[in-house]
Design goal:
Elements lengths: L1 H12 L6 H10 L1 E5 L3 E4 L7 E7 L2 E6 L5 E6 L4 E3 L2 H6 L6 E4 L3 E7 H10 L3 H25 L2 H11 L3 H4 L2 H8 L3 H11 L2
Helix pairs in contact: 2-4, 8-9
Length: 194
């Protein structure tokens, strides 16, 4: 299980150097979990219980629109933190579901343990702020892309920025994430040759 923690340490150390005391604290507060493919990890209609760090695998965050269509709002490309951030941090009922698309190896921590870590950790507040800022920036870029780029341009950008997802994530989730129909995405893939 040490590779779980090594992946998390490497991710955080792209932002800030982790002292040994914080590594020990992370090992105590984050629990390794294996989640099988096609599991709804955190269903809508509940307060999210865990902050997840994806060691391996692919997850998505989605909600249902007024016509009960699934709208994918987040997909990971590699290791990173993944949760319904607003609802997790505020302990409110989420309208979003977290779905493990593939088998996933995760490190999970509870909301109470996040608070404990913030009190005890030397670096947690610093890296948490930077990670949340990065997440907010990515959300802003995505909203801007949805408003200003054509479907083809969104797909080309997606291929450039998240090239591995296309091999592991079903097209219906990618199409939803890009705000287009699966049929339109299939046509774009034929035209572009991917």
């Amino acid at each position: 299980m040490e590779h779980y923690y090594t992946r998390l340490f490497n991710y955080v150390e792209e932002i800030i150097s982790l002292p040994e005391a914080d590594r020990t604290l992370i090992r105590r507060l984050f629990k390794p979990v294996f989640v099988p493919k096609d599991t709804i990890l955190e269903p809508a209609g509940q307060v999210p219980q865990y902050h997840n760090f994806i060691v391996s695998g692919y997850m998505r965050n989605f909600h249902l629109d007024q016509d009960n269509n699934e709208i994918t709002t987040d997909l990971n490309d590699g290791s990173r933190f993944f949760t319904s951030y607003f609802h997790f941090m505020n302990r409110t009922v989420s309208n979003e579901s977290l779905h493990c698309i593939t088998d996933c190896e995760l490190l999970q921590t509870s909301r109470d343990d996040v608070d404990a870590g913030a009190q005890l950790s030397i670096t947690q507040k610093d890296y948490t702020i930077q990670i949340l800022q990065k997440h907010l920036d990515e959300d802003k870029k995505r909203i801007n892309d949805m408003a200003n780029l054509t479907a083809e341009d969104r797909y080309r950008k997606f291929l450039k920025e998240k090239p591995t997802i296309i091999r592991y994530v079903p097209l219906r989730y990618i199409a939803s994430y890009l705000g287009i129909t699966q049929r339109h995405l299939s046509r774009l893939r034929r035209e572009i040759g991917t």
